[in-house]
Specification:
- Helices cover 9% and strands 25% of the residues.
- With 605 residues, it is mainly beta.
- The protein folds into four domains: 1-139; 158-264 and 271-295; 317-436, Alpha-Beta Horseshoe (Leucine-rich repeat, LRR (right-handed beta-alpha superhelix)), CATH 3.80.10.10; 448-605.
- The strands form five sheets. It has a 24-stranded mixed sheet, with helices on both faces. It has a three-stranded parallel sheet with strand order 14-16-18, with no helix packed on it. The chain has a two-stranded parallel ribbon with strand order 1-3.
- The protein is flat and about 95 Å long.
Length: 605
C-alpha cells in the first residue's frame, strides 16, 4: 500500500453501489504517497462502520467520506497536510485528531453526543468553523495540545466556555499563548481542569475577575509547568474545588493568594465576600516549585484540608505562620523541604491525622511534644532528616501500625515506650543509634514485618525477645556485623539465637564474614516460604540438614562462593536446593521450567 496515491472507485468496486455494508473497522497506516480519498458519492457506503483510523499518511490532503451514520470513533494521527472535513457523524463518541492541518465542519454537522475529543498539533487550529463549535458544545472530555492560537478558540465561541454545557473534564497542554481563561469563567458542569506546559498562563481568569458563584461543579485543578504563574487567586476558584495540584511552576511564590482578585472588584457585597472566603479544598499537592515561599498569603491553611503533600520546594520555611495544622488534616507528606524546621508547634487539634511522612528535610530538628496524643495516627515515617536528634519524651501513639526510621544520622535513640506500641505491625529501622533499648523495653509484641539495618541491632534484637514475636511473618536483616560467621549465631551464654517459627519470609544481607547458616536456627522454621540471601561474600554453605521443606522460593545474589556450590549438579550444596521449586541465583533460574517474570512477581509480594 506504500505506493497508493488515490483511494477511489477501484477501492469500492467498479460495479458496487452499496459497498462495505458489513465493515465495522477501517484502518489506514503508513501510506506516505496517499494524497486523496475520493468519496463514492452515495450515502449507503460504510453503513455499519464504527471505527475509522488514519495514521501517518503524511501527504493526504482531503477528504473523509461525507456520511458515516454508524461511526463512533474517528482517529487521525500524523497526517500533517490533511484538512479534516466532516459533515455528519450522528453516532460519534470519540474524536482524536493528533497532527493535521485544519478541522472543518459543515454548519449542519451532527456530532451525536461525543464523550471525548482530542485536538493536538493542528497547525491552523485558529481557523474554527461554526460547525465544529456546534459539535464541541456537546463534548464531555476535551483535550487541546500544542496550539499557538488557543485564545482565538475562546473568541469563536459566542458564549465563551459556557457554551460547552456538557463538559466535565478539560485538558490543555503546550499552548504558549494561553494567558488566562475567558472572563465568563468555567462551564457550569466542568469538574476537572488540567493545564500543562502553558508558559504564558498568568492567572486562571483575567486580572480583577472573580469566579461566578453560579458555576459550582469544579472539584479538581491541576497546573503543571506554567512558569508565568506566580500565584493562584483564591477569589477565582469556585468554592466547590476539593483538589488542587501544582507542580514544576518555576516562578510560583504563593500557592493561594487570598487578596488577589477579590480586592480588584469594585462592587461586592458582604455576603459575596463571605461566600467567596468559604472553601471545600481537601487535597493540596505542590511539587518542584523552587520559588515557593508561602502556601497562602494569609499564612493560614484552609480549615477543610485533609491531605497536604509538599515536595521539592527549597525556599519554603513553614507550613503555617500560626504554627497550627488544619484540624481536619488526615494525611501529611513532606519531602525535600530543607529549610523547614518543624511541622507545627502543637498537634493537639489534629485528632484526625492518620499518616505522617517526612523525607529529606535536613533542617527539621524536632517534632511536636504532643505527638503521642494523635489517637488515629496509623503510619509515621521519618527518613534522611539529618538534623533530627530525638523523639518527644512521651514517645509515639500506642495505636501506630507502621513505623519507619531511616538515615537520620543525628538521631541518638529510638522513641521511648517502644514495647507499648501494641498495634504496631511493621517496623523499619535503618539508622545507626548510640543508645539501644534495654531488654526490658524490647520489641512491640504484635509485629508482622520487621526490617533492621544497623550493625548494633543484630544481637540485641534476640535479647529483646525476637523469638516471642509469634505474629512475625517477614524479617529482613541488613547486617554489616563483622563478628558474625554463622546465622543465626549463639548468645554469650552459649544458647542458640532462635528465630520466630511463624516466619514466612526471611531476608539476610551484607554479613561480611558470614560463612554458614546454622542448622539449629532453621529447624523450627516450619512456615518458611521464601529465603533471600544477598551480598554475603564469604558464605559457603546452607544448613547441614538442609533447608525447611516448606521452602518454595530461594534467591541468592552476590554470594560468589555459595553460588558456585549451588550452581550445578556437582556443587556440594546442590542436593539441598534441588527440591525447591523456584531457585534464582544471580538473576538466573536453576530450574528452567520457571519464568523470570513469574518468580520475580512472587518474590516481591
Amino acid at each position: 500500500m506504500a505506493g497508493v496515491k488515490s483511494v477511489g472507485r477501484e477501492f469500492y468496486g467498479e460495479s458496487c453501489s452499496r459497498p462495505f455494508q458489513s465493515l465495522e473497522t477501517l484502518h489506514f497506516e503508513n501510506m506516505p504517497r496517499w494524497e486523496k480519498w475520493i468519496p463514492l458519492g452515495v450515502s449507503e457506503a460504510f453503513a455499519c462502520l464504527r471505527k475509522l483510523s488514519i495514521i501517518r499518511c503524511h501527504n493526504l490532503v482531503r477528504k473523509l467520506p461525507d456520511h458515516l451514520p454508524s461511526l463512533k470513533k474517528l482517529v487521525i494521527h500524523g497526517c500533517w497536510n490533511l484538512v479534516v472535513s466532516v459533515s455528519n457523524l450522528p453516532m460519534l463518541c470519540v474524536l482524536a485528531i493528533e497532527g493535521c492541518k485544519r478541522v472543518e465542519c459543515e454548519s449542519s454537522v451532527g456530532f451525536g453526543s461525543p464523550y471525548s475529543m482530542v485536538f493536538s498539533k493542528i497547525s491552523e487550529f485558529g481557523h474554527v468553523t461554526a460547525g465544529l463549535m456546534h459539535g464541541v458544545s456537546k463534548v464531555e472530555y476535551l483535550k487541546i495540545v500544542d496550539s499557538e492560537k488557543l485564545t482565538t478558540l475562546w473568541e469563536k465561541i459566542p458564549e465563551g466556555l459556557h457554551r460547552l454545557k456538557f463538559l466535565r473534564e478539560l485538558s490543555i497542554e503546550d499552548c504558549p499563548t494561553l494567558v488566562s481563561f475567558p472572563a465568563s469563567g468555567f462551564p457550569s458542569m466542568l469538574k476537572v481542569i488540567q493545564i500543562k506546559s502553558c508558559s504564558g498562563l498568568k492567572s486562571l481568569l483575567p486580572e480583577g475577575t472573580l469566579h461566578s458563584r453560579e458555576n459550582a461543579c469544579l472539584v479538581r485543578l491541576c497546573v503543571v509547568r506554567c512558569d508565568s504563574m506566580k500565584s493562584i487567586a483564591r477569589g477565582q476558584l469556585p468554592t466547590t474545588l476539593k483538589r488542587l495540584e501544582i507542580s514544576h511552576c518555576m516562578n510560583l511564590q504563593c500557592a493561594l493568594d487570598e487578596g488577589e482578585g477579590s480586592s480588584s472588584s469594585s462592587v461586592m457585597h458582604d455576603e459575596d465576600i463571605n461566600n467567596r472566603s468559604k472553601t471545600h479544598l481537601q487535597y493540596l499537592d505542590i511539587k518542584s516549585c523552587p520559588s515557593l515561599t508561602t502556601l497562602t498569603s494569609s499564612g493560614k491553611l484552609p480549615a477543610t484540608l485533609t491531605h497536604l503533600l509538599l515536595r521539592e520546594c527549597p525556599k519554603l520555611m513553614c507550613l503555617s505562620s500560626t504554627g497550627k495544622l488544619p484540624a481536619a488534616l488526615q494525611y501529611l507528606e513532606i519531602q525535600s523541604i530543607p529549610k523547614l524546621q518543624k511541622i507545627a508547634e502543637r498537634l493537639h487539634q489534629n485528632t484526625f491525622l492518620e499518616c505522617i511522612k517526612i523525607w529529606n528535610c535536613h533542617g527539621l530538628k524536632s517534632l511536636p511534644e504532643d505527638l503521642h496524643n494523635l489517637s488515629k495516627l496509623r503510619q509515621f515515617q521519618i527518613v534522611w532528616c539529618t538534623s533530627f536528634s530525638s523523639f518527644p519524651a512521651a514517645g509515639l501513639p500506642s495505636n501506630l501500625r507502621v513505623l519507619g526510621i531511616k538515615n537520620c544520622k543525628n538521631l541518638k535513640a529510638l522513641p521511648n515506650g517502644m514495647r507499648n506500641l501494641t498495634s504496631l505491625q511493621k517496623l523499619d529501622i535503618s539508622n545507626r543509634l548510640d543508645s539501644l533499648p534495654s531488654p526490658q523495653e524490647g520489641l512491640p509484641t504484635n509485629l508482622i514485618e520487621l526490617n533492621m539495618i544497623d550493625l548494633k541491632f543484630y544481637k540485641p534484637m534476640f535479647e529483646w525477645g525476637l523469638q516471642q514475636l509469634t505474629s512475625l511473618i517477614k524479617l529482613s536483616i541488613h547486617g554489616e556485623c563483622l563478628d558474625v560467621d554463622s546465622f543465626p549465631g549463639e548468645r554469650e551464654n552459649g544458647a542458640m539465637m532462635l528465630l520466630p517459627n511463624s516466619l514466612s519470609i526471611l531476608c539476610i544481607s551484607y554479613f561480611q564474614n558470614l560463612e554458614c547458616l546454622s542448622p539449629k536456627g532453621f529447624q523450627n522454621l516450619t512456615s518458611l516460604n521464601q529465603l533471600k540471601i544477598y551480598n554475603c561474600l564469604k558464605l559457603t554453605s546452607l544448613p547441614k540438614e538442609g533447608l525447611p521443606p516448606s521452602l518454595t522460593q530461594l534467591e541468592i545474589r552476590n554470594c560468589p562462593l555459595l553460588s558456585q556450590h549451588c550452581n550445578n549438579e556437582k556443587g556440594q550444596e546442590w542436593s539441598k536446593i534441588v527440591h525447591i521449586p523456584c531457585v534464582l541465583i544471580d538473576n538466573k533460574f536453576i530450574h528452567e521450567t520457571v519464568t523470570t517474570d513469574s518468580f520475580t512477581t512472587q518474590l516481591n509480594r
